[in-house]
What we know:
The chain is mainly α. Helix content is 82%, strand content 0%. It is built from 16 helices and no strands. The radius of gyration is 21 Å and the shape is globular.
Amino acid sequence: xxxxxxxxxxxxxxxxxxxxxxxxxxxxxxxxxxxxxxxxxxxxxxxxxxxxxxxxxxxxxxxxxxxxxxxxxxxxxxxxxxxxxxxxxxxxxxxxxxxxxxxxxxxxxxxxxxxxxxxxxxxxxxxxxxxxxxxxxxxxxxxxxxxxxxxxxxxxxxxxxxxxxxxxxxxxxxxxxxxxxxxxxxxxxxxxxxxxxxxxxxxxxxxxxxxxxxxxxxxxxxxxxxxxxxxxxxxxxxxxxxxxxxxxxxxxxxxxxxxxxxxxxxxxxxxxxxxxxxxxxxxxxxxxxxxxxxxxxxxxxxxxxxxxxxxxxxxxxxxxxxxxxxxxxxxxxxxxxxxxxxxxxxxxxxxxxxxxxxxxxxxxxxxxxxxxxxxxxxxxxxxxxxxxxxxxxxxxxxxxxxxxxxxxxxxxxx
Length: 414
């Protein structure tokens, strides 16, 4: 061993880095608060209006988020992800605690809930790109794969904890208590975020040329289009999400009803999916790096598509649960690799805008397939609809394999 090798610093794994652990704690608290908030909003909307009115209230956030998402990426890059995340959680904390106080003291109309939903949608539009842009500012490039695994585990914990916690708060104190609980969780994330120290960008040290927001957005889209890895990766994300979310969000409920599995069946299948996704996140957390990341990403999407189609052809619930574990494992691994490749390939100065594009496909465009999926299952049954959706998802994986630059993309060595 040479003297240079002896002197080389040993990189601290992400799960031992205090700064990354503080970020992870803040992310977990914020995401859990988000889960509790959505349950509280759903319950309050149902109690305050008709089912149709409640549906409109719940849809407002999604519409606002989709409309403003690309602009949110510009905001994250202009003002910095840490500042945007802190401001977003602070706004969410104040708004949610305010509506909790209003519900505790009076019975506000449905319009108050609608206003809260609109505010949350707008805040989410800047919060999500900033969250995606933050890891490269707190972790070295060699640890970003591990950070994505840790983030996936934190999200699964939030899903497991958030729904029961929100339900318990509603049972004990109604919607006001649930909103208050969500506000406290958002508040918990703030001191953790305030202690984060960011790695400086090269552009941080010099004067930044002043341009309009539209010019920044156009510049970001041009950057993606010209990038040898990110351009194809965004197409893969769009196709895989478009084929994935319909069957798993709408088709699964209809499939369970047709098979006679009931609500418990949906719960078991979703639990299987969550188990598989959690296992994928744990694998990436422990290993930190997957060799031939672009190749593995594309193949896991293609194989995951086969598993999605298989769900429509298994009549027994235990087999469907086993298949859903495979779907979760493959989707969880491909999703984490998408995030890690995005963060390692992208110039950090553009990361907010690049993240906003991928999130726009996931949370803006793909959910538009929900009503189409439901109507198609009603007309033709689950098998052809799941198969067609899986074909779209598989097309994303095959496209990734066909693009040499993406297929050969690698995560940095640790």
